[in-house]
Give the backbone structure.
Amino acid sequence: MGSLWRAGGLAALLALAGCASLSLDPAARPRPLDHLDDDIASLLLVFDLPASLEPVRQGSVVSLDFAAPADGGRHIRAALVAADASDLADALPPPADGRSYYFFGFSGADQASIRAAQEWARALPPGNTAMTLSLSPGLCRTAEIDPARVSVSVLVALPGASGLAPLLADRSVEDVLAAASIETVPACDGHSG
């Protein structure tokens, strides 16, 4: 694993067919993310991390599973890439003290695969498909941390939408490590951590 920490056991599952909501305003009524009609390929993921943690470049993986009981399914495994999210960044409140946002999206090839899977799902009888999204975040540490006191969050948004939905909400590193059966977060390259 080297300097890569993958919380595969955590596999933050989000059933996007009807459970995800997009809202920056807690008083706003959440809108379900539509796995057939929303452009899932343009989904942005925002990692909200303390200064002591950083994402590993192309170390985070998203798995999307489109399932249809009678027609099988489509599985996409995509390594996240850095995304230009200036519009979204402008809409977000500043990160809390000592924390930073990191923006990720899908590569062009993965976007094409996601759109093809959605096209396949749209061709099936209505109500016959569902989609799940799981995240294995790749993180490393820049300093020693207390896993019980350090937390991570990952939020998702569609460009142009009015908000974010939590994929991981303020989870302690200790909980994430335990769920993944991992003992420690490795030091980032170039840091003794």
Q: What stands out?
A: Residues 14-180 form one domain. The two ends are 16 Å apart (CA to CA).
